[in-house]
Amino acid sequence: MDIVIDSINMRTMRSSAAVSTYTHSEGLTPVEQVALGRVAAAARGKPILDIGFGGGRTVDPLLAISTDYLGIDYCQEMVDACRRKHPGVRLQLADARDLSQLQPDSIALAVFSCNGIGMVSHADRLVILAQVHRVLRPGGAFVFSTHNQDCPDHLAGFRFPRFEYSRNPARILVRSARFCAQTLIRLRNRRRFHRQDVRTPAYSMINDVCHHYGTMLYYISLAHQREQLEQIGFQPDADAFDRAGNPITGECRDSSITLIARK
Q: Which residues pair with 239 in a beta bridge?
């Protein structure tokens, strides 16, 4: 377990701002609708594992596929918020790097949405993939998203917060104050965390603009991600989709890609 990366990302995920943001998010993205549509029939009524459920955006859509549902998240604040939002649903504090509470070959569908698997180190990512592979049934599917090393964000420099102009002087004052405050947060986080960047041909771990540069996120190309999955034991050539839900058949420059890996 990489203590530095865990410390940076956990601090951000436990913040009231992050919990509020994720708790108020609703509905599946277009690519999630497509990917889950591909696996829903095979997983209908069977055990589902929802990893990193955060504020609970994926809970209802997955319960619609099967009530044999278990959600896990490693952030207590997210678990507490999600339990208030979804009382009675099986939601547990647990870490995807240790799924020893689950039997081998016991899960029909595992889901790790919102690039959540990208919030741990390279070594820990491989542990998660191995853990998911172990608990999946033969023929079971793992649907997850990951940041794309081939996208422009991977090499982007410092980015200032978005500023929306208004003709209203009061609004301009408020927005200017917010812009300055957020810029200072970004500069401070960038100065503290940028030194942790790791960039290799196979993957990168970078101080990403997400949460005002308050995170370290993992980037990987589709080719290397498929290779990584196959080395773990998943079937070759995992299905991959761009952010709009279109199958990726060539180069993809989207910020994230979604895959269906099958055991």
A: 260
